[in-house]
Amino acid sequence: MTPTKHANVKCNVILAITIILAGANVPAAAQEAPAKVKDMVACRSIEDDQARLACYDQKVAVFDDAQTSGELLVAEKEVVDKARRDVFGLKAADNPLFTGQNGGQLSEIRSTIKSLSSGRGGKRVFVLEDGSAWQHTEGRIGRSPKAGHSIVISRGALGSFKAVVENRPSIKVIRVR
Known about the structure:
- By secondary structure, the chain is an alpha+beta fold.
- The protein has two domains: 3-88, no CATH class; 108-175.
- It has helices at residues 3-17, 35-42, 49-69, 77-87; strands at residues 18-21, 73-76, 108-118, 124-128, 133-138, 150-155, 161-165, 171-175.
- The strands form two sheets. A six-stranded antiparallel beta barrel has the order 3-4-5-8-7-6. A two-stranded antiparallel sheet has the order 1-2.
């Protein structure tokens, strides 16, 4: 493989398998690539092979330094998807960092109940396999859910959430942990 093709492949692989996350407080424009990535991609337009390779070498070094220092965070899609799942139901889930490139949020999670306990006012608290805890707020639970039962939690109206345990009628829940 020629040096030019190697640089192009390296850049394309970096861009294709990563989602770029810049900073802790991510603005609505988070779906747009950071300037350091745009600068690196701009090297593609240089026609002269040597100049293009020199551009890539310089821009990749800047990119690598930013990543090493923590100024620029790079995560594979599966890592970001797991983070989105982990914050489902929490206020952080509304941050553009977790809404994806098209602004879409997770609409539901499917899991298994790991354990149950009583919360405030005798309301049931479901702890899921991932460690998240959801408290029953409204609706009749009916037959008592048990550890090992399947649960689907989905978005409801006006920021609410509803849970369906073992295909029973839905109940309203709120994430408590």
